[in-house]
User: What shape does this take?
Amino acid sequence: MSKVEQMAAYIAQHYTESLAVEDISRSVGLHPNYAMSLFKTTFGTTLITYLTELRLSHAQRLLTMTDDTVLDIALDSGFNSISRFNTAFKANCGCSPRQYRHTNQIKT
Assistant: This one.
């Protein structure tokens, strides 16, 4: 696996944890600036955007399939605060997490 593939795999395995660019770059033995540049060149997106999108996808699954609180889902998805989660969610999905759940929740 290339270094950039290793970074993507590392993010996929650890996205629900507190994770910084330094952690990701250290996992493959690269300088953080070089890791960010290599990732952006290869995938066309930044490490942080990729990490945030994985976290949001996880949150969307939890919102539709569980009755967990929005706060619990935010924390379980790797966000450190409810305000950061709400801001990222609305920017990515166009609605609040509560609205998303109301529209998309799977009824059992």
Notes: The mean pLDDT is 95.
